[in-house]
């Protein structure tokens, strides 16, 4: 049994990485480890946060020891937290890292740790929309770690660019998000969402940012070949970019009646309805490392369309559980036409049931425990 501390976002903060940290903590618990999760008293200053709120509207996760401890911008707090970690006699401290904003905070605290292994769990080494500050801050964090676990092979390569000492690195694919509820009949989900059962649905899910390629998907959806099918596109997620250009594109292409825009952060309890209602989940990203959305789709056994950027095609084998296509509207449209014209859903769903076995939480926990052995 190990005593493990996870430092990163968690309840009452919302989002995919918070969900990841909470689910990882439960996995360690199931394996008999003692686990604490320390999240932020201040995660981002409000003026830096692009969304409507940083906080979850869901209830607190049960049976997890989550404490709000870390102030991301206060060096005096970092010093105090570093001392507190040493007093806790942890075996491993896992820093959940996804953007360089946290590099000073994490790096400072890690340098105060005297007894525990310092492991970086890296979702993104460099952000999708990077800046000079990312290049300046990231090395400070990397130098403070003993080892690294990434969620895709492409991120391992990014870590290696900053690690000049050849520290241990490993990767384990993003595990399946299996905490959003069960698979349910499509008809039930459609009733909950008040959607027409006579239509088929594409789902674009999650926060809307420029790199996620929603503009490409809208252009692809305007392909006249798709107009022959009773299709609608659901865009379910809060816009972190200006929504106006997307709405203007929808209007200029005459798609107002075929695209449903739900501009909000979808609470955990409602996620299952969107995935159970969808025929295919579409992620037309312009850049990526990996994506939690694919792992929600795997849980609900939904075919996927991704672009072959970053590590997405590592997770979605082309022609087996969906499509990994070139990042452009024409390739996206071609794949969607093939899916509906050739009725590929049953074939893909059958393959997903086998493919999803690769993405266990035990594989992730074992990789974290063994990276420094």
Summarize the structure.
37% of the residues lie in helices and 18% in strands. It contains 14 helices and 13 strands.
What does this structure look like?
With 373 residues, the protein is α/β, with parallel strands linked by helices. The protein folds into two domains: 3-171, Rossmann fold, CATH 3.40.50; 186-358, Glycogen Phosphorylase B (Rossmann fold), CATH 3.40.50. It contains 14 helices and 13 strands. It has helices at residues 16-30, 75-87, 103-110, 132-143, 153-162, 186-193, 214-221, 244-252, 268-277, 292-299, 312-315, 329-341, 345-355, 361-370, and strands at 3-7, 34-42, 66-71, 92-97, 117-122, 147-150, 169-171, 200-205, 231-236, 259-262, 280-283, 304-307, 322-325. Strand 5, helix 4 and strand 6 form a beta-alpha-beta unit. The model has no long low-confidence stretch (mean pLDDT 93).
SSE layout:
Blueprint: E1 3-7, H1 16-30, E2 34-42, E3 66-71, H2 75-87, E4 92-97, H3 103-110, E5 117-122, H4 132-143, E6 147-150, H5 153-162, E7 169-171, H6 186-193, E8 200-205, H7 214-221, E9 231-236, H8 244-252, E10 259-262, H9 268-277, E11 280-283, H10 292-299, E12 304-307, H11 312-315, E13 322-325, H12 329-341, H13 345-355, H14 361-370
Helix pairs in contact: 1-14, 2-3, 3-4, 6-9, 7-12
Question: What is the architecture of the largest domain at the second tier of CATH?
Answer: 3-Layer(aba) Sandwich
N-to-C CA distance: 15 Å
Could you estimate the helical fraction of the residues in percent?
Answer: 25-40%
Task: Kindly name the structural category.
Answer: alpha/beta
What is the CA-based Rg, rounded? 21 Å
| Tally of helical runs | 14
Count of distinct strands = 13
Kindly report the name of the CATH homologous superfamily of the largest domain: Glycogen Phosphorylase B
Number of domains: 2
**Amount of beta strand:** 15-25%
Shape: globular
CATH class of the largest domain: Alpha Beta
Largest sheet: 7 strands, parallel
- Uncertain segments of ≥5 residues (pLDDT<50)? none
